[in-house]
Queue: 2 jobs
Job 1
Amino acid sequence: MAAPISIEDRDRANQYLDRSISFSMCGKIDQAIDSIKKAISIDTEFAQAYNKLGDYYIKKGLVKDAVAAYSRSLELDPTNQNSNFDLGCSLVHLGRHEEALDYLLKALELKPEHTEIYGHIGRVLMVRGEHEEAINNLLKALAGDQDDIMSSFTLACAYQIQDDKEKAEKLFKKVIDRYSKLVDMKKRFAEGHYYIGRSYFFMGNLGEALKHLEKAVEYDTEDVDYHYSFGMLYSDADAFCSLSEAQHANGNYPEASENMAKAIKLSPENPRFSKIKSQLGI
């Protein structure tokens, strides 16, 4: 355990924390990270600062670094609801679903009124193939916040799997409408085009799916490999894979093969892309 810090140093650490939040709100994530690291250098047991560091890493797509930061926050404060929740969400992004579920359930135990947690639990249950239980949790999330886009999109996918096309389409249209408004305000909004494209793909509208997924790839920037939006995260490799799936469904086989190869090159350790490549026969 570190020696107690002075009141003056505690105040300095809090000032750097506040400064980091201001930078983050302005979209200056690198400066936010620099400031929060200064706070931690002053107070090495500042649990809230480690939690914020994790948040900033997530915004940059540095999920493994975020997991380390959230884990350190929980070492210092095991009952921190935010860090349990944030660590659970981050582990979902890494595919560590069983661990993720433990932290999400702990977060829900600490703060039962935080209904967003049900949405993330639903995502984990979807991956585990427990679709009925996933739907129950996603409905609880939307009962708490009908504008929860992540839960709306995930629930649409769950209904699609159960062949309940009417309910799925209603939710996919909701996602499209929300992101379309954002795309109108931010023209090169790759994340918006990605989820609009995925929604249209699941609805069977290949023309619109291709248009938006092509823009998601085109508007990507080299300095960002992961894209975070409304609690959902996808990688550049996911974007190429999704475009490949849409192209294959539309009969554009050479282009589909080329983009799937790009996905696998970007993330060769991810078995999902090789599995989809095999299923598509490209």
Job 2
Amino acid sequence: MRILWVKMGGLWPATTGGRVRSLNTISELARDHQVSVITTHAQGDDPDGLQQQLAGCERVVSIPYAVPKRGSATFAAAVGSSWFSHYPVDLWKWRVGAVRREVRRSLAAGDVDLCVADFLFAATNVPMPARRRAGHVGGVPVLLFEHNVEYLIWQRLAHLETTRWKRALFEMEWRKMRACEAEAITRAALTIAVSDDDRRRLAEMSPGSRVVSIPTGVNTSYFTPRHNTEVPARLVFSGSMDWHPNEDAVCYFAESILPRIRAEVPNVSFTIIGRNPSARVRELTAQPGVAVTGTLDDVRPSIAEGSVYVVPLRAGSGTRIKIFEALAMGKAVVSTTVGAEGLALESGRQFLAADTPHDFAHAVIRLLRDPARRHALGCAGRALVEANYSWATVARQFEVRCEEVVAEHAYVEREAIRGVDLSRAGSPRYRGAGVVAGEQPAVGWSHRHS
């Protein structure tokens, strides 16, 4: 297959869950297919390093673009401009003319079988048809890769917000986001979610559209247990600290949960690992025992120091790669239900679930006092991800879905040439992992650059 992959916000270094998921999927696909990538980069990104990471790709184009940040004049301008459009500001700020032009040039060249819009933000820069029945533009089907249910993040943030004017803005944001998200799903030939929970939500937004799910993966060779490195009573959290749900999570934990733990475990400490911490997050270091690392080239040593890995998320969507990485390192994990949403985990077996400050603190305290229980949870988590969630396994599922879309599109094109009315004759239907078009067999791509 000849695949054009469009991703806003960069890919390297792989400092976010979305980047990790996309980079590993692209790398695996490039082993057997011609993959071209169009992305953006800003300060702190490394486009040259990305070229090296994706050396197996046919072409990697990275366009300089700095997304407007909260509090800046450009962000205020984006907010104002979005008010006069159907776009929420979180999509408006990712509309980049240079990216749209590069995408159109690539599609017009006629050597692309499939275009992947990676995240909803990419879809604003990918030409998509006015009608879902076609599922393509310029002869190229579009696959929407939804790492999150984007509107749900803003809806949850709106429900958590106590300042009235901010809540009103968040309410408007999630409603506009939901409309745009539903439109993109409707226009895509296929939408891939990262959990069954998200698949159901996305399908409900656009009845009749094709929505499937694939699991999240983890590099079990890179994230491995490190023995004798735990710091007593050390709690750790990792994630991109410029993502609002992560900022909310660590502030909520430090303000509402950590004091309850400290009352029972006075020597407890909390390390916040992740890029671009906001001023609000950095201010947490005023509390005793709280450390904020900022960007790290390698997060594993800091995670390894944790006695317990905490995921106190109250908003968000998709699946948290951070949990699988912690489990791969054999860490005992305590998470909210939202934090572990969409992952095939069983509370009490691979992690502990807790949703109130009291319950969360109690779960952490129990683990800090019970090394054997921590070890048992960590071993069970490691065994689960090692057996089921390697990137090669996950990427193969993604590849099969891509093959289905290309095969169906080829069938539709052939029938159109023959003059068959597909509204009466019927279009191909998915059966299992392949596409069945009448008596057509499922398509397989078994050699490089088919």
